[in-house]
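Box 3.1 A note on notation
Throughout this textbook, protein chains are presented in two layers. The first layer is the amino acid sequence; the second is a token string describing backbone geometry. Keep the layers aligned when reading.
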Amino acid sequence: MPKVRTEAEALVAPKPPALAEEVSEALLEKASLPLGTMSVLGLLAGGYIAFGALFATVALAGADGWPYGASQVLAGSVFTLGLVLVIVAGAELFTGNTLMAGLLVARRLTLKPMLTAWSVVYLTNFAGSLLIAIVALVAGVHLAGDGAVGRAALELAEVKSARSFGTAFASGVLANMLVCLAVWLGYSARSTTDKVFAVLFPIAAFVAAGLEHSVANMYILPYGWMVKTFATAPFWEMAAIAPETFGAISIAGVLGNLVPVTFGNILGGFVIAAAYAVAYLRKSPA
């Protein structure tokens, strides 16, 4: 039974063992959501992360003259918008929900509800991300800055599509370790301001390092493919590039990235979840 906290205790960030219990209770609630609710919240999370990725793409547009590190940190900082919306407004994000694996280790959740939640949220995250990508293309976002936004989107998608399976997998492990730490810290926050700052540095770090996040890539890769496929001649003239420059961007490239990144994200989430489950949640036999 959850411990009832006093009003004073509710305003103070919990210590690590208590935080682990709070996260456990929240994840159990997520795993038991009705499928309709889970689906709607999954669509929202996909859209929210897409907004963060769109914001980061705009930040990178025309940043060729910036030092690499500075432009990456800027992109990472604004990408944080996505997870802030997920945590503060409320939504179901596949990568954060990989923390449910810790409940298996702690014997608080069985495999079937966890896999059901993962599957529903993954698919609806993808649908929400694709919807934002389509609307962004129709809105002509790629034309902004005399085509600089579209060029940044293409360059980002090209780099991700060209990565090998092993590289994408390992990058996905590191990315979701940081994302799950951001989610974990977010549960400790007691105000909206706290939540924003709790997620800021882990999320900015994974984006700045160029690591791979499956849900972000559900927007970045299809959007890059859409720009390459459907952009008209005026865009290519403004951006001073040619479609042939981006040979790795394709449907096969999208899938070739998402498969290893997704499995890497699962492993990264498991590492964080299992560590805290062993440390704080799994009770030793008397």
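The mean pLDDT is 94. Residues 21-281 form a domain with the Glycerol uptake facilitator protein fold (CATH 1.20.1080.10).
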